[in-house]
Records
---
Amino acid sequence: MARKDAQLERIRADTPVTRRDYLRILVTVSAGLAAGAAGVAIGLFRRHGSGTAAPAKVADRLEPGQAVAFRYPGEDDRALAIRLPDGRLVGWSAVCTHLACAVLWREEDGHLECPCHDGVFDPATGAVVAGPPPRPLPAVRLREDADGIWAVGTG
Amino acid sequence: MATRDPGEPQGSGAPVHPGEERDLDRDVDPAHPYRARQLAPYRRDAGLHDSGLTGRYPGLRGSGSRDPRVHSSGPGPGAGSDREPDRAAMLNARIAIVATVVVGQLWGLMVALNAWLDHRTGQVWLLLGFQVLSFAIAAAVWLAGPRDR
């Protein structure tokens, strides 16, 4: 009996994955990919620089060329408000779209830079000027009134 | 002529050694002959008993040794080749189709993720439709062969 068991055990160990098994595995992977796409579509995965939150004050005032860092809409969403030299006020997510490093304002160069992989963004539009980032920076909407500068939304 | 050790229990068989004279019925248990026959094809020297090849050429093993589908030696059905080549071809074709669908789905998921990160929500829903359709095709191809699932 023990010999027969050992023989059966050896047969089981030698049995390769069959083509039917491959087909079954492939169909299961296909179902998993469809489920993953559904997760993306319903927003299961978090995306930096998007979402809603109550307006948050970021500064009392900014002089041309100055910038202030803040977090909006969430605690993990680093952002920058910049007063451009021409007087316009702009707000961008400060999370690089490449690998999520912090984006810095380089006043002397007049651009936004990600020091991790030398990604460069246009501070006026958020567009990628140089480097590996695949997408522009998400925008943070700002409002300026007598009380100061407020972050009021994204996108 | 095959000989049996009088002290050996009937049906237990002896270890296979090169050059050893073998008893062709050593795996047959008279009380449960069918059990022995079930195991016989799985033996390392399966298929070689009839021809006496192991006696003449001890180092030689039949093609498909340990392959449970192989149950006889020489040419013909069951001797290491597919007995239903058309069915095997259908299975191969179904695997190829589903593998192609899965590759397409991987590409679609990459595009969907890029679109979602780029705030192109409409495109993401379109790509979800593509994914669901792809899975439906894969499942249909799988279900099409009830004997090969």
---
Amino acid sequence: MSAVNRDGWTARRGLETRERRTLGALALLLVVAVGLSLSVGSTFVDPARVIGALIGTEDGGIRLLVVEWRLPRALAAVAFGAALGLSGLVFQTITRNELGSPDVIGLTTGAYTGALVVITSGSGSGTAVTVGALVGGFATAAVVAALVAGRGDLGYRIVIIGIGVSAVLASVNAWMLLRARLEVAISASIWGSGSLNGVGWSQLRTPLLVIGVLGLLLLCARRGIWALQLGDDLARGLGTRVTATKVGLLALAVGLTAVVTAAAGPIAFVALAAPHLAAALVRPGPVHLAATALLGAALLTVADVVGQHAIPGRAIPVGLVTLVLGGAYLIWFVLRSARRLT
Amino acid sequence: MTDAHLLVAEDLSLGYGRDTIVEMLSLRIPPGRITAIVGANACGKSTLLRGLARLLAPRSGSVLLDGRSLQTMPSRDIARTLGMLPQSPSAPSGITVLDLVKRGRHPHRTWLQAWGPEDDDAVFEALTSTSVLELEDTPVDELSGGQRQRVWIAMALAQRTDVLLLDEPTTFLDVAHQVEVLDLLVDLNDSGRTIVMVLHDLGLAARYADHVVAMRDGAIVAEGAPGDVVTEDLVHDVFGLRCRVETDPVSGTLLVVPIGRRRTHESP
Amino acid sequence: MTGRRAAVAGVVATAALAGAVLLGLTIGSQVVGLPTVLDAVLHPQDTQLHRVVTESRIPRTALGLVVGTALGAAGALMQGLTRNALADPGILGVNAGASFAVAIAVAVVGSSQFPVLMVAALIGAVLATLAVVLIGSVSRGNPITLVLAGVALAAVLGGATTALVLIRPTAFLAMRSWESGSLAGRDLDLLTTAGPAIAAGLLLAVAMTRNLDTLALGDDAAVALGVDVRRTRAGVIVAVTLLAGTATAVAGPVAFLGLAVPHVARGLVGSAMTALVPLSAVLGAAVVVVADVVGRVVISPQEVPVGIVMAFVAAPLLVWFGRSAKLPQL
């Protein structure tokens, strides 16, 4: 073994300059998006007054508008976006597939089913719908889990079985929409498109708490993600209890998606796109985790701003905006990566 | 200096799904030595290695590390003594050499522990003994086959295990890199590490291994020093190949010269 | 893959088809006996029963056969092309494009006449397929790229469609009934337009199958064996568009048929396209007709659209595959 000079060498590296800049840029993007979300609207509030309202120097109408109405919605976008992004990252790791996302295993479809049952049976109260969505989402996850259990090769099987379960539930949903009265069907469709409408402080409290707890747990479990990224064999060789880790991480991811879907309806593509986009910007590891959360939050916040204000007088549900934006981006992403291959 | 550990398979049966690949196999891996497991395709050598590494749970029988059954030991404890490099390992795209090698420290760090000087030592030694230190910030995807294999071995080394199991570490490498990797394994063995590797090249096994285990159809046909195992009769028995065994002029170990139908002085 | 196995499978499939047709003509909210059916065909009179047969049963069964044949064959072709057992004609953007075009026709143009919708659906399907192929072709037809491109486009178009119909409630109504895939209320005249298109698609499909099998060995191996890779891929894509596009234009989006039927067929005759495509076509026809019957019967006198029934049929199949010890390989 050659005697190599070890002066002050350490394997511990801080963030590279490039990554520091990237995370900084993402954080800035998020702040700008939130700022827009708080300023733009039927009443434009210029940034100085927004800050004033936040720190308490403004009062009256402006404070009410910014802090009571717009702020919870903006915070919801940030928290929900981050939660979805992280959930997607976990799903992609476990299914070892870039297309692995909570949408694929029928979780969001099942939540929609639960919500539809509540909506079409007449009781339109927000809490009831939320409960319905939670029950639907978890029930679906449980069914998929039960169907997958006992067999190896978790990743691939989850996708196939998830698509199957999703198909049944999507049909049930289509059926319920078909039978319902027009106004009910339309409002149910809006919920089904994922909307942050009417998310105020009282609705935000519980989801925010749950997301916080689950996010913290995910942070503690992050080494399991790094191990699983190397494949089952190496993960096991490094001492990871692979099945237990997968199940635990999956539970966290399901929880994150379920709480968001219950509160805002199914919001597609953030879980799929945020980890991809983040991976294009930074290397694998804790940096990727942070970038995914930031990017998911930024994506959803921007989508909500666009949805609310792009067409004057018409509010488009945020879920539709993410769908279109996410899809368009994925097309660009596919073109770019395909070009790199050829 | 590393400790010598005893790895033993006792009446081990292994399989996938409904198939049993290895049945009632017993094997003692000589501690502190290089063992090569050879055999024709699909003879069960990879399956055996995976069973020894506890990647595959035994159908019956057991694998004992220093007298304790692997099934009863916590996986993390095993990972501090036994390291394994599977056949075609995959790394997340974009990961650098340093980050990958650092992941080898996983079994030594609980989620409460911060990165410490011992971790630094392990990673540094791993990088220098595999000569990849100058590549530490390079993405693994951009490396050549030989370099990549060395990086994977570095990761296994960072684990600081006394026993190293490798599944076909040379299969996708060109000849120069094959020799490079095997020479490295001999270096590692010099400090007392027990090395067990599945090799498909009998000649390389004869040259580099202290102990050869020849398998056919899931069972051990012969084992022992290369001189005892690599004989013309055995090669024919295990590989179905006629050959002549000569002395290698470069290393003084055994050389397997295949006899085919054409291009040969030998009579059919 | 012995010829004998293929022959047995063919017999089974044909028998299933005959049975399906029988059910399709006789079973419904009312059971019409076979003699009455024959009578209605040969000596049509203006009785209620005869009208049910001529105006509902025969068109639905005939169109069901045509749609099922088309989607079954298209599904098998897609799975062969993308070498992906989860591929579905919907992945090439057919359903999404058709739905989007129909939404535009209803919301923007303001028409909800069926022939108009059908033309719109076909145009939408073709354009969407072209778009996906163009995007996917950047990597020389790499199957994964194609699938990703299709998923992405479907998402974008789906979002745009939903946005459109939420803005116009009348559009919502029309889309809602079109979206579920149904054979009800379709005129037998449709057969004169849809029939030739699907026949052309089927002929092209059969012509492509041998080359497609060779393509499955890998692009390099296929070229070495003298196959024109680009032309084969193009031919398959045109065939799929013709078949799935027309079927979707006629019946609305019927998802999962193209996914599920080839899986069953593969279990019977293996993965060779030369046997798989024809068998999938026949089985597809049988399945759609039976699904339509089930939709008529299960909550009679109300109807469940065939698209919804299909999902219930396909889902257990997928779950069964997901649980099987050997994962479906192509």
